[in-house]
Write a structure and sequence with these properties.
- The chain folds into 2 domains: 125 residues, Pnp Oxidase, Chain A, CATH 2.30.110; 135 residues, Pnp Oxidase, Chain A, CATH 2.30.110.
- It is built from 6 helices and 19 strands.
- It has a 7-stranded antiparallel β-sheet with strand order 3-2-6-7-8-5-4. It has a 6-stranded antiparallel β-sheet with strand order 11-10-13-16-17-12, covered by helices on one side.
- The longest helix is centred in the middle third of the chain and has 16 residues.
- The two termini are 25 Å apart.
- It binds flavin mononucleotide.
- The site of flavin mononucleotide has 14 residues, from strand 11, strand 12 and helix 5.
């Protein structure tokens, strides 16, 4: 019993919480603010790269906009990111703006727990930094957690070409609503990047929360392709137009025609147009959010279902 009481003082919250949410998530609203203007970007902003931490969206919100995350039910401001505009991208008759994250803060924990939890989390990150695949500065990882206040859905990306096939999980994904583009931010070391640039088509399977364990196992395919589709432990079905093997138990399968790709620091940003969108089932999709967001919801007795 005393251990439960003591835990928050000696152990940090988990950085990420794996949760089950019906898509599209409605719990958190994202707004961009600049020069007295405001735009709802809940379905129009994405993480475009991790190093440097870069956000993309379809609006040009000036040199120093603020990205704000609010809980929809209460209106509570959960966190903000201060952005600095760095570049724009023109692709397929649309344009996007890229922003570096200059600073950020969240309000999911009260003082003094907030700075204390940050200190504990950063201490763990510094200890494991070189072995962690993210290898980010702790302050930047804190900003990334704020970007995950909008719970991010997990998909399995299928790539299929002569001599190369693959299936791996992603959550740094679009949509970028106003432009009609859909983005994928993929580490440039991913083994399928050259094939995706060449064949310019993928299928995205929206994954039910119940498939969490198998999805995490598939993370190894960021580094090595699939030897054969038949090695997967679940049934597949062909995507509608391209016939790419996708997950039969998916909630939805979207096909993406890739219209643009470019390296942005650690990641390659792919932009595509949705060619088909098949809704196959209702249900909760696997999502990631920040651990401090789930802690805030738990305190209010409305936690996301955890898987
Ligand atoms: C659920 C899930 C989602 C992921 N989403 C992405 C993504 O959007 N972009 C990306 O480059 N890597 C993504 N990854 C891959 C990881 O960031 C990492 O590169 C991979 O697990 C290999 O890690 P390692 O280099 O430490 O072995 C994801 C992994 C998992 C399990």
């Amino acid at each position: 019993m005393w251990k439960d009481w003591l835990r928050p003082f000696v152990r940090p919250l988990p950085q990420w919480s794996v949760v089950a949410v019906a898509p599209p998530q409605q719990a958190v609203i994202a707004r961009l603010r600049w020069d007295g203007q405001t735009a709802d970007v809940t379905a129009d902003h994405t993480v475009a790269s991790l190093r440097p931490l870069t956000i993309a969206n379809s609006l040009d919100a000036g040199p120093r906009p603020v990205l704000e995350y609010r809980d929809r039910a209460t209106g509570k401001r959960l966190g903000v990111l201060q952005l600095t505009r760095t570049a724009s991208i023109a692709a397929d008759n649309a344009s996007l703006t890229l922003y570096h994250v200059a600073a950020g803060e969240h309000r999911c924990l009260d003082w003094p727990r907030r700075p204390w939890n940050t200190w504990l989390q950063n201490r763990v990150m510094r200890k494991h930094r070189t072995s962690s695949h993210l290898n980010m500065e702790p302050a930047v990882a804190q900003q990334l957690m704020i970007a995950y206040l909008c719970p991010r859905p997990v998909v399995l990306v299928s790539v299929d070409a002569p001599g190369h096939r693959n299936l791996f999980p992603m959550d740094l994904i679009g949509p970028l609503q106003r432009s009609g583009l859909f983005s994928l931010a993929l580490r440039s070391t991913n083994v399928s990047v050259p094939t995706m640039r060449e064949v310019r088509r993928v299928a995205l399977s929206g994954i039910p929360a119940t498939m969490k364990d198998v999805v995490y196992q598939l993370a190894e395919h960021h580094k090595q392709p699939l030897a054969d589709w038949s090695e997967l432990p679940f049934p597949l079905r062909p995507s509608r137009e391209f016939g790419i093997p996708a997950v039969a138990a998916a909630l939805h399968i979207r096909e993406l025609a890739i219209v643009h790709s470019q390296e942005l620091g650690s990641h390659t940003l792919f932009l595509g147009r949705i060619v088909s969108d098949e809704n196959l089932a209702d249900g909760a999709q696997l999502h990631h959010t920040a651990g401090f967001h789930q802690a805030w919801r738990r305190r209010r007795d409305v936690p996301f279902a955890e898987v």
